[in-house]
Protein 1
Amino acid sequence: QKEVEQNSGPLSVPEGAIASLNCTYSDRGSQSFFWYRQYSGKSPELIMFIYSNGDKEDGRFTAQLNKASQYVSLLIRDSQPSDSATYLCAVGGKLIFGQGTELSVKP
Amino acid sequence: GAVVSQHPSRVICKSGTSVKIECRSLDFQATTMFWYRQFPKQSLMLMATSNEGSKATYEQGVEKDKFLINHASLTLSTLTVTSAHPEDSSFYICSARDIQEYGYTFGSGTRLTVV
C-alpha cells in the first residue's frame, strides 16, 4: 500500500462547478497535511495546510481532514480555468506526496 | 513570505560527469531541507533530508554515494549528482521550511538532462 494515495485523474469539471479532490494516507500517526498545486514544468506551490480534524476554509478552497478515516480532501468552489493544474496531497513532516490528481476546468 | 532559490534551473551534461545543484533559503534559516526528484507525469519522490552540520538522511533505494548532499550552512544545501547517466535525467526540487511560517517552500526546480 502506498503511503499517500490520491484518486486517479484526470478530473474534468465545468467552470463554476465544485471540484473535489481526495487523498488517503497510511500512517495513522501523521499530524500535518498539505495540499499543493503544481503547474506543468513548475515546482509545487502551497494551497492549504490542515492539522486538526474538520474543515478549514480559505477563499474558494476548503480542506477537510478525518484522522479516524485517514482521509483528507480539498474542495474548490467556483472552479476557474486557471485552477487547471495537478493537485498534490502531502503528509507528514517529510512531506510524503501522493501521485497527484490532474484537474481540468473547462470554460 | 519565505523564498527558496534553486540554481541552475536547467542543465544539460554529458554522461559520466557530475552536476551540482544549489538550494538557498533567502530570508530565513533552514536547519532542514528536503530534496525531491520528479519524473514526467509522476509525483515528487523524496530522496533525502538534508540536515545542517550533519549527514543527510536518505530514503530507501536512493544511492547516497551517487547523490551527494551537503548542508554546510543554515541557508545552503547542495545536491551533487555524480557520474550522471541518462536515467538520472529528471526534475530535481528542494524545499525548506521557515519555522515562522506554515508549510514548506519549494525551490523552482532544476531540469537535469544527461546526454
Protein 2
Amino acid sequence: DQQVKQNSPSLSVQEGRISILNCDYTNSMFDYFLWYKKYPAEGPTFLISISSIKDKNEDGRFTVFLNKSAKHLSLHIVPSQPGDSAVYFCAASGAGGGADGLTFGKGTHLIIQP
Amino acid sequence: NAGVTQTPKFRILKIGQSMTLQCTQDMNHNYMYWYRQDPGMGLKLIYYSVGAGITDKGEVPNGYNVSRSTTEDFPLRLELAAPSQTSVYFCASRPQGAQGSPLHFGNGTRLTVT
C-alpha cells in the first residue's frame, strides 16, 4: 500500500520553462514533506521541505506547495535549467519527530530539453 | 566534511554468500538508516537506529541484520544472499530531535546477487 505516490514516472520540460512535479499521499499523520533530487550513481540530496502547517515554501527557483485537504503537494522549478535533469523523490515524515525515517514515492525523472 | 560514507561502491555476490555493507558518518548524528532502492521504485526502509545500541526494523528487514556499537558506524549484514537482494543500498543519517530535518545520504552500494 503506497502511502506516497508520484504518478508520473517521467516529465520532459523545455529549458527556461516551469517544471511542476506532483505528489499525493494517503496518511494524514504525515507532518513534514520533503523533496529530494538524485543524479545517477549518487545518493539522494535534499532540496526543499514544508511543514504540514504551511501551504507554501520557497527557496530560490524551487517552491513547494501543500494542499492538505487534497493530500497533494507539488514542486515548482522556475526557470528550469539543464542541471535540473534528475530523478525527484517526494518523501513524508510521520508525527513524533520521524525517528523511523521517511516514506518515499517512486520518483519522477525530470528531463530538461535544451 | 565527508558526511555519510558507504563502502564498497559495488559488489557481486553468489547466492548464499554473506557480506557486510559499511556505513559511517562524521556529523555526530544519532539517527541512522538503511534503505534499498530497486529499479523504478522508491526507497524502502530496511532498518534504523536512534542511537548506539538501539536498532529497529523498517518496512523490509527480512534477510538483513544491523548493529550500532558506535554513533558513527551502522553496518548492514546480509547472511545468505538471495537474488531478491539485488539492489542499491543507501545509508542515511540525521540529527536527533530536529523535527522535519532532512536525511543525509551516502552515495550507495550497488549489490548484485547471482
Protein 3
Amino acid sequence: GAGVSQTPSNKVTEKGKYVELRCDPISGHTALYWYRQSLGQGPEFLIYFQGTGAADDSGLPNDRFFAVRPEGSVSTLKIQRTERGDSAVYLCASSYDSRADTQYFGPGTRLTVL
Amino acid sequence: GENVEQHPSTLSVQEGDSAVIKCTYSDSASNYFPWYKQELGKRPQLIIDIRSNVGEKKDQRIAVTLNKTAKHFSLHITETQPEDSAVYFCGAETSGSRLTFGEGTQLTVNP
C-alpha cells in the first residue's frame, strides 16, 4: 500500500512569511508524528497526534509553530513568521497505534527560509 | 527528558567486515528502541527494533542487543556490503510515543 506522503517536497520562502506543510499518513494509522531534522543530526520530535488531538506538543519550539489534524488523517504543520533558523527537513511519521509501535516516515519537506 | 547518545559518529569498514554502533539512553522508563537507516536525501527506514522485554533480536545480517540495566543498546551488522553505506540512527521511546534519536552514525563500507 501507499506509504506516508508529504507535500511539498521542497519549499523556499522568505523570512517572515507563513508556510504550511502537509502530511498524508498511511491509511488506518491513528498516530501521527512531526519531526524536524537539521543537517547532520537526528530527527527532533515536534508533536504527536493520537486521532484528532495533539497528545504531546512539547517539542514545538515556540508559538510560531502549530499543527492540526482535524479529521484524524491528514495533518498540516503551520509555521508563522518564518525565521532562517527554521530551515530544515520536516519529517512526518505515522504508526498503526501508539506506544512502542513502528513509526513509518514520509520523505520529508525541505524548508529553506531566505 | 530522554537523552540518547550514539557512537561512533563515523565508521568505515571493509566489505565483509562487521560493524557495531552503540547507543545509551537516560530514561529508565523507555521501552522501545528502533534503528533507522537513512540514505542521502531519503526518508529514514526502520531496519530493526527491540522492546524492553527482549535482550536480543536478529534479522539475517542485522542484530540488536539491549542491556536495560546499563541503559545501553547496540546494532550489529555482519558481512557488510557497500549498499549498507548510509547514516544509521538509534531511537528510544520515552513518555507517550515520542522518539528521541541519537545524532547518527555515518557508515561507509569500502569495496
